[in-house]
Amino acid sequence: MSDEEHQYEAKRGPETYPQQANAIRRNGYIVIQNRPCKVVEVLASKTGNYGHAQCHFVAIDIFTGEKFEDTVPSSYNCDVPRVYHTDYQLIDISEDGFIILLADDGSTKDDIKLPTDEALRFQIKDEFDEGKDLTVSVMSAMGEEKVCGLKDLNRK
Predict the structure, then answer these.
(1) What angle do CA 121, 123, 126 make, to 5 degrees?
(2) pLDDT (tens digit, 9 = 90+) per residue, 97-135?
(3) Which SS3 state, helix, strand or coil, does residue 27 take?
């Protein structure tokens, strides 16, 4: 992919911000193929035949777990997703697999499904059925959301 094509591909909106490729580190975030990803490996090459030092990113989609790779000149800007973590109190679990959550401001949220991770899904169901007061951590980025954690409010 030529330099012009890579620069043209970047589409910034309020969900992302630019960051120079050589500043992105392992365990950081990057957008690859319009998907928010967590960086698991960064390989930097020195200036060579291509005219620029290159950064090779290996990253995992934070919502689907799919693996992505991209190589970018180190001086170019990459899109970085704005990733938010919000805690909600779990009110109910509907029969169709959606969870009903209570935000700090008193509003309810009912458009998030139970997680696809089997262990977390069963933990949420089991502890809710036991009558525990639970807080669910929801990760959101680029218009998508997913349950990523669970805490018992009564556990000290």
Answers:
(1) 105
(2) 899 999 999 999 999 999 888 999 999 999 999 988 999
(3) coil
User: Which whole-number Å values give the CA distances from 124 to 85, 121, 148, in the listed order?
Assistant: 18, 5, 11
The whole-angstrom separation of Cα 156 and Cα 154 is 6
* CB burial string 50-82: b at 16+ within 10 A, e below: eebebbebbbbbbbeeeebebebbbebebbbbe
Domain at 137, CATH number? 2.40.50.140
- What is residue 14's predicted lDDT score, i.e. its pLDDT? 84
* One domain, residues 15 and 71: yes
At 116, list the tokens: 């696809």
- The tokens describing 132, both together, are 């525990």
- DSSP state, residue 115: P
Query: pTM here?
Result: 0.80
Number of structural domains found in the chain: 2
Tell me the three state secondary structure of residue 155.
coil
Cα–Cα distance between 89 and 84 in angstroms, integer? 17
| pLDDT at site 154 | 73
